[in-house]
Amino acid sequence: MSHLDTLFGLSGQCAIVTGASSGLGRDAARALAKGGADLGLVARRADRLEELAKEIRDEFGVRACAAPADITDSAELERAFDRVEGELGPLDILLGAAGIAELGRAERHKREKWDRVVAVNLTAAFESSQLMGRRLIDQGRPGSIIHISSVVGSRGNPIHRAIGYTVTKGGLDNLVRQLAIEWASHGIRVNAIAPSYFPTEMTVDPEIGDVRSDQKARMETFTPMARLGREGELETAVLFLAAPGSSYVTGAVVPVDGGWTAW
Ligand SMILES: NC(=O)c1ccc[n+]([C@@H]2O[C@H](COP(=O)([O-])OP(=O)(O)OC[C@H]3O[C@@H](n4cnc5c(N)ncnc54)[C@H](OP(=O)(O)O)[C@@H]3O)[C@@H](O)[C@H]2O)c1
User: Fold this and answer.
1) 248 is an active site residue
2) What pTM was computed for the model?
3) Which H or E run contains 207?
4) 181 falls in which pLDDT band (50, 70, 90)?
5) How far apart are the first and last CA of the chain?
6) pLDDT digit string (tens) for 79-128?
7) Nearest-atom index, ligand 1, CA of 197
């Protein structure tokens, strides 16, 4: 085994990934599989998850299964955890990437939009962390929890008016910090990754198959590297935070943002 494998290798570990049916969650799942982890994939679109599970098994030779669930339904979420654990064995890593954004000016932002965003981005992130943490504590095993936050977790968003989104990402950063403190003595590390803009279903206009050019120009203006993130550019952060060699890293929010937060 090479020194890099000792530091970053995830072989023999089992990860559950929420939001694995598209975008950054899909990329993160592939990164963990490349590191050697077995994968349980969670989101609502079962066909996408089955497709990715097959792709991961064929490409990386690890075990992978789909566990479709609406993570805002506590019972469904718990069933998804049970299913993955039943199929793959005890869980070591939770990667929480499920998230939604609802646009609208703050003064007109409808309560239903607010509730939807809080339910996915914050409450489900808490409940999935809790399901993971409780299992690890009961089993007396260490583990790693990683959530995908955002650069707007630590500041306002100058491009999109999405008050619920910004507030939930701020909450998520502090969820991570609080859990890191509470669970450090159990060997459970809790961290987040804070990306700036990446082209995904969340940001791409389906009619043109790209981020709208006026928005892209504004995103680039706020990014010292003057470009959006690219597929694969989250991988090293995911592997770093999941890696056994990062045993002293907890409560961190790691930016992957082309310098967005450096201003
Ligand atoms: N793209 C960016 O520029 C950017 C920047 C910073 C942070 N982020 C964050 O990165 C994460 C991933 O976003 P993305 O850009 O990859 O967006 P995306 O492509 O729209 O992916 C969102 C994922 O969340 C899942 N999801 C949404 N609601 C769900 C629910 N109720 N139950 C289960 N799964 C649900 C979706 O799956 P189903 O629809 O199949 O359920 C999908 O897999 C989010 O937390 C987002 O806030 C994105």
Assistant:
1) no
2) 0.98
3) none
4) very high
5) 41
6) 999 999 999 999 999 999 999 999 999 999 999 999 999 999 999 999 99
7) 3
CB of residue 97 inside a 6 A radius of ligand 1: yes
Which one of 3.60.140.10, 3.40.50.720, 1.20.1200.10, 3.30.10.20 gives the CATH number of domain 3-258?
3.40.50.720
Would you say the CB of residue 255 lies under 6 angstroms from ligand 1? no
Going by C-alpha positions, the residue among 3, 10, 40 that lies closest to residue 143 is 10
Q: What is the percent of the chain with per-residue pLDDT over 70, rounded to a whole number?
A: 100
Note the residue count of the chain.
Answer: 263
Q: Which of 8, 60, 81, 165 is catalytic?
A: 165
Could you tell me the two tokens for 130?
A: 């809790």
CB 92 within 8 A of CB 18: no
Pairing state of beta strands 38-42 and 64-66? parallel
3 state SS of 87: helix
The answer to whether the CB of 70 is under 6 A from ligand 1 is yes
Determine contact, residues 102/162, Cβ cutoff 8 Å.
Answer: yes
